[in-house]
């Protein structure tokens, strides 16, 4: 009989520990940390126009370093010039 009580208690403790572990592992989903792009290096494929350029501008405004990838060099250089207006520090 004491063995059965011990087994039930151990199972209860194991369930509580498993529940706490699950809550701990899921906590980043509930309170996600904001992503800091300051000083990060972001590579944007298709960064010379459209959605890619908008993403590049937003990353640059948040202090990221950028590498833009596209085929047309002229459009890439135009995008670079436009994006550089959104610089937030001297290092960019
Ligand atoms: N805009 C929308 O509302 C929308 C909606 C749904 C899906 N999409 C999709 O999202 C993507 C981007 O849309 P967008 O409106 O931003 O288009 P976009 O203004 O035409 O921009 C496309 C970018 O990708 C580059 N690119 C194209 N082919 C490439 C290749 N083979 N290698 C490297 N770079 C390449 C282009 O530069 P180069 O031509 O110089 O290489 C340009 O920088 C497209 O696939 C589009 O179909 C867009």
Automatic annotation (TrEMBL):
Annotated InterPro entries: NAD(P)-bd_dom_sf (IPR036291), SDR_fam (IPR002347)
One GO CC term, this protein: endoplasmic reticulum membrane
Any GO BP: sphingolipid biosynthetic process
Transmembrane segments: 6-26
GO molecular function annotation: 3-dehydrosphinganine reductase activity
Pfam families: adh_short
Superkingdom field: Eukaryota
Sorted UniProt keywords: Membrane, Transmembrane, Transmembrane helix
Name under which the protein is recorded: 3-ketodihydrosphingosine reductase-like
